[in-house]
Amino acid sequence: MSNLNQRQVQKLLQKLSPQQIQMIKLLELPALQLEQRIKQEIEENPVLEEEPSEDQEEEQPKEVSVEEYFAEDDTPRYKYHANNYSPDDQKRPVYLTEGMSLHEYLIEQLGFKNLSEREMTLAKYMVGSIDDDGYLRRNLSSISDDIAFSLGIETSEEELERILRVIHQLEPVGIGSRNLQECLLLQMNAREELSESEKLARKILTNYFDEFTKKHYEKLMTRLSVGEDEFRDAIEEIVHLSPKPGNLYSDGKSSAQPYIMPDFTLDYQNGIFELSLNSSNIPDLKVNRRYMEMIRSMSAGSGQSAEQNKEAIQFVKNKIDSAKWFISAIKQRHDTLMRTMQAILDYQREFFVDGDQSKLRPMILKDIADATGLDVSTISRVVNSKYVQTQFGILSLKQLFSEAMQTDSGEEVSSYEIKNILSECIDKENKRKPLTDETLMDILNDKGYRIARRTVAKYREMLGIPVARLRRQL
Description:
51% helix, two-stranded antiparallel sheet, 7% strand, extended, four-stranded mixed sheet, alpha+beta, transcription regulation
C-alpha cells in the first residue's frame, strides 16, 4: 500500500475575474447588440439611467398652471370638447397578424386530403420533421421510433412511406424530399405534358444522376445517343428546377438580409480622413443621484434605524458600484475600438482613399496589435462582427486582413491581389476546357507570384469557385 504524502506546490495561474469576462463580452458586441445590452443593464439595475441629451432638455415644456393657461386663452368654453362621436361608435382592437409559416401551410393542405385521424396525426409529425429548406433529412426508421416514444403510436416504415407520398403532393412542389435527386424528380413529374427536352431531363435525373452531378457530359451524350443541342436543352430544364423547395414558399414576409449597423463611420474629403464611432443609438449613461442621496440619508441615521438599514445600504452600494463599472467598461470599449480602427486606417490608408482592393497591404492581427500595444486576442475580438461605413460602401473589418505573398522580386503583396487574378483568369477561361489548379499555378508563377498548387486550391475554395471539372459547360 502506497504512502499518502502531503506537499505544497506553487503554481502561477492566470484567471479572469467576472468583470474581465464581462468586459471581453462587451468588446465583442457589434453596435446593434450593444444597444440591446445597455437596455438590458438599465432594466436590471435601477441605479443606472440614460442621460438626457441637450435636445431633450431644451424641449422640456415649462410648467404652467391651469389658471394661467385658461386666462391667456380666448377660446369659447363650448369648443373645448369636440362632440363628433356617435354613441354607436365602438373601439375595435387592431390585430397584428404574421404570415403563415411553411409548416402551418403544409398542415392546412393536409386538411384537404382524405386521411384518417391516425394518418393525420402521423402526417403532422412528419411535416414537423421537415427542414426550413423543404427536405426530410431523417430516415423513416428514426421517425418511426420517435413517434412510438412521443406519441405512443406503433407504426412501420411502409406506412410512413405511404403518408410521405401524400406529403409529396403538397405545395410547394418537391416538399418532403429526402435528397436532391428526389426533389428534382418530384418537380419534373409534377408537370402535366412534358416536352422532348423535359423527357430527356427526367431520364437523366432518373438513370444518370451521379454522372450528371459529376458533369460527365460526353459519357452521358454517348449513353443517351443524343446530340449536343438536345443535351444542352435538357440540362437547361434541370438547371431551372429549385434545389430547395422550401424557398419556393413565400408568406408575404420579406426575406431581406439581416440589417447591418456599421460600428465606425469614415469620411474622406479634401485628402483628410475623419473617423468616428457610430454611437447614435447608444445612450449616454449616468448614476441616478437619488440613490446616492438615499445612502447618505440612511447612513446618517443613528442607533437601531442605522442597523436596520444596513442591508438596504449594502444593496444600493452594490448597484452603484455595478453601474459605475458598466459606465467605465462602455467608455473603455469605445477607446479600444477607436484605437484599433485608427491603427487599421493608418495601415491601409491608400486603400481607404478609393476602395481599390489591389492597394490593400498584407495585414495580420499581430500588425495591429503591435501598432496599438494591445494583445492579439483583443484585436481579434474588436475585429469580429464589426463594420465600417466608407464612401464606397460598408466593409467588414475582417476582410481588410490578408496574408502576405512574395513575388519573384521579393515584394510583399496581399492575398487579395492573388484572388483577383484567379477570378479574372477563371472568368476569361474557355468554359469547354476550364483551367485546372495546376494551370492556374503556372499562370501565377509566370506573373511573378510564388504560389503552390494547394494554395491555388485554397484561394479558389475561399472564392467559392468549384474545381475545373464542375465549371465545365457545353
